[in-house]
Amino acid sequence: MSEAAAHAIDHHEPETSTGIPNKKVLMWAFLGSDCMFFGTLISTHLIYRKISATVGGNFLDIREIFDIELTSFSTFILLASSLFMALAVSAIHKGNLTSTRWMLFGTIVFGAIFLGCQVYEFTHFVHAAGNELTLSSYRGEPHVFGSTFYVLTGTHGTHVAIGVFWLIGWLIYSFTGKMSTADAMDIECCGLYWHFVDIVWILIFPVVYLMEYAF
Amino acid sequence: MSTESLKYLNPESQTDLKTKVFPRPGQNTTGVINWLTTIDHKKIGVMYGMAALFFLILGGVEALLIRSQLWNHNMDILSNREYNQMFTMHGTTMVFLVIMPLSAAFFNFIMPLQIGARDVAFPRINTLSLWCFIAGGLILNLSWICTGGSPAIGWFGYAPLTDTRFAEVLGDMGPDFWIFSLQILGLASLLASFNFITTIINMRAPGMTMMRLPVFTWMTLIVSFLIILAFPAITIALVELMFDRTYGTNFYDFLEGGKPHLWQHLFWIFGHPEVYILILPAMGIISEIIPVFSRKPLFGYGLIIFSGAIIGFMGFAVWSHHMFTTGMGIVATSAFSILTMLIAIPTGVKIFNWIGTMWGGRIRFDTPMLFALGFITMFMVGGFTGIMHSSVPIDAQHQDSYFVVAHFHYVLIGGALFGLFAGFYFWLPKLTGKILSEKLGKFVFTLMFLGFNLTFFPMHYLGMIGQPRRTHSYNEGHGFETWNQIATVGAFILGVGIAVGVYQFVTAAFNKKLKPAGKNPWDARTLEWTLSSPVKEYNFARTPIIKSRDQAWENNYGDKDKHSEKEPLGDHGVHMPDRSWCPLISGIGLFVFVLGMLFRKTIEVSDNFLATPYEVAIGGCSVFILGIIMWSLEGPGGYHLFPKENEE
Predict the structure, then answer these.
(1) Of B535, B567, B599, which one is at a domain's C-terminal end?
(2) Which residues form the domain of B641?
(3) Is some CB atom of chain B closer than 8 A to the CB atom of A158?
(4) Quick check: A34 contacting B, CB < 8 Å?
(5) Rg (CA), chain B
């Protein structure tokens, strides 16, 4: 390795004890912590799911307001966005700026579609005639399902929204002419976050939606 | 690409590496701006320590008010509600604003020096966590002037005490301040922990293998993992509580289908690991001190670390022992009881390791050692009562009595605070370059040890004869008066001891009479003692190559092949990062945002102000986001230093 190259490494990616870049270790630690965030929320939902079924003499059949086709569609969209994300990371590693830009754009669009579906779903549930599910009530009676459902899926939606803004930041940055393979590590961290948010949805979808049809 | 733009100029000039968008304060910044924009882990550690010592005094005054109220039967120094506020604020302050940040101060200052790093992995994130901690502390104490005053819900904030419908004062905002300050303090701890984990895993000097890390660094790592895994539980619990109080959700609302019991579970899933978050750093500190003052290597290094890890791991499996009387059923109660008894084993192993270290050693009773010995004895008393509580029938008797107060103060003052004070006396010479007065130190230890035992030992007895905790006063005829008066006298002695100690720490840097410490005043063992005192801003002029576990000791007394070596300095010297305004800007944005969110309920009052609370919140959030964007665009910056050949 030439002298100049050694210096460059010293400044940009300092050698680490494990050989894994610092930012990646930080990201993995954060994701480990985030697991506990969603773990707490999902547990809250599961604990209340059975207990709250008949609160106020008001038997809750959530299937009456769930639109499983729409949610399946948005689930598929979110999973597909992970493919774009992976391709974007691969493209930036190879230094292909055009491809990176398009793949980032694809991820953003699919993430936005997912968020749009969620907004539609929430609005639809709150205003469902005769079956209104709000944060605090179902059919006008006090209920817990709305609390756990909206806070859990809403927290996930917030994660997706943060991811979309992050990706938009990268997309804008890609037009400044400063983006290079040196940024590959940062985009990879963004990708780790994005895939993690997807994986959480893979857990939420069966636990919150599909289980209502099975048990 | 940016490699060509990196220029290595000659040693004397300040190199201007590459300013991306915003300039960063440079090398020669001085005064207040130096402290506000610093990203140096040592300065951040000092600021953590100073703020935490301030809160220690504040929480101490609250404790003394509580003790004065209990001086005699039916006293009226504090009203009912003021008493509840006082013990809530005392508990919250001492846990989140004193013990945790004091530990963080040591993590910041000592850990990078112990592993041979020039700084932590993410210096700016480190600064942000400092400002978040200070913002959280301010918000918690601003609650004194809000509607309803400070929270009166206990540091545990059990539902339904937090339910808006049961508030003693209409529109009580105390719990809201409590929720938001804990959220920000949680953010501070999480950011700091991600940073420490990355630093310890990735920034060790060559040859510093995991099994050569000093025990204190190991405990930093374990505590950091505990924080990142335990804090999410309280964050979500607080989010749910915030939704309950603000948007009418029913998580903990028993009138509308919620279960207050859930709060207890979520709180203690966080709260029990939190206990180990408080005590493990102190255990790490005394594991450094005892070998030095016994002049022997630590006995059972591997076992101490393994026990620490086991304690951390099992800490997640014992939370329900705080809830034995809630009626969880026999199976759950027995399981948690057995696990609680088991967790005493690794704790006991550590105690035997410390005793084994002292065994046959040439013990010097300097102040740090006195505090370390105080830690072992007092922590054992707290540990024994803890084992008593693991037995369900006994716990059912002790529940909510002063016996429990005695137990956890023996662990948290006799344990954690004594350990941290030991750390202060041990490492302040490294920080200030001066030897503290041994005479004054021993005076502080005597006062604290006496006062502490006078205060809390009688509480065992008071609890056994039935004095309930968290109760504003007691009636005549129970026989509580004598022991309460002894406890109150003890509390004031303890308070004087702590105040003198804090005075000694704070003035150490300015006191001209103190003698210079030199590199290694205690003849200590670990890597930080190979550096000059006070430590230079670049820590290690040349990256050390580590050859053994007790490197400073081996350098002085060991074989030639165990002496550490130094990596040669490259032609570009030591690369130092520039200072940054961005963490402070982000921190202020977050602080303003939270204030806006808190005062959203009192819109009609604030019509007279310049902006509505929502505008304040949006403004604060914008400043926060602006800070983050500037942060990501300000670029690496930095300058180079060229220490002389013999500088450390």
Answers:
(1) B567
(2) 1-36+568-648
(3) no
(4) yes
(5) 25
What is the token pair recorded at B89? 């604020």
How far apart (Å, rounded) are the C-alpha atoms in residues B204 and B183?
31
Higher-pLDDT residue of B58 and B255 is: B58
pLDDT value of position B613:
77
Calpha distance B621→B313 (Å, rounded) = 37
Q: Distance (Å) from the C-alpha of residue B431 to the closest C-alpha of chain A?
A: 27
Q: How many distinct structural domains can be found in chain A?
A: 1
Q: Identify whether residues B10 and B46 lie together within a single domain.
A: no
Confidence of residue B609 (pLDDT cuts 50, 70, 90): low
Query: Over pLDDT 70: what percentage of chain A?
Result: 89
In a domain, A10, yes or no: no
For residue B398, the model assigns a pLDDT of 94
User: For B399-456, what is each residue's pLDDT tens digit?
Assistant: 999 999 999 999 999 999 999 999 999 999 999 999 999 999 999 999 999 999 999 9
Smallest Cα distance from A115 to chain B, Å:
21
Chain B CB within 8 Å of residue A202 CB: no
Domain match, B538 and B602 both: no
| Chain B residue with Cα closest to A151 | B240
CATH number at residue A108: 1.20.120.80
Q: Which residue has the higher pLDDT, B139 or A63?
A: B139
Structural domain that includes position A176: 22-51+61-214
Flag whether pLDDT at A3 surpasses 70.
Answer: no
Identify whether residues B342 and B424 lie together within a single domain: yes
Q: Which of B3, B6, B229 sits opposite A36 (nearest CB)?
A: B229
> Is cis: bond before B534, omega within 30 of 0?
yes
The domain boundary, picked from B567, B596, B612, lies at B567
CB-based contact B427:B527 (threshold 8 Å): no
Q: In chain A, whose CA is at the least distance from the CA of B6? A: A8
Distance CA B221, CA B229 (A): 13
| A27-58 confidence digits (pLDDT tens) | 999 999 999 999 999 999 999 887 766 655 55
Domain-located, residue A117: yes
Region B140-167: mean pLDDT is 91
Q: SS in 3 state form for B533-566? A: CCCCCCCCCCCEECCCCCHHHHHHHCCHHHCCEE
- Per-residue 3-state assignment (H helix, E strand, C coil) for A105-165: HHHHHHHHHHHHHHHHHHHHHHHCCCCCECCCEECCEECCHHHHHHHHHHHHHHHHHHHHH
Polymer length of chain A: 215
